[in-house]
Amino acid sequence: MSREEVYEQVNEVFATIFDDVEIKINDETTSDDIEDWDSLEHINLVVAIEKRFNIRFDMSEVNKLNNVGEMVDIILSRV
What we know:
Largest sheet: none
């Protein structure tokens, strides 16, 4: 799976979680960039990403994520 394919799917998850079909993410996107991205939505986002890609994040990985690019790197390493 290519990075672009992962981004397409991750963007779909973001659009669903944040109920915003116009949302566009990139490597540098953080919770500061998305108004409704709080701790509860972060959990929902992680769970939805895990389901979409059939992977599991370690809790230490989740706590260390600084941006979407880091999340995509982890996904790519597991699919």
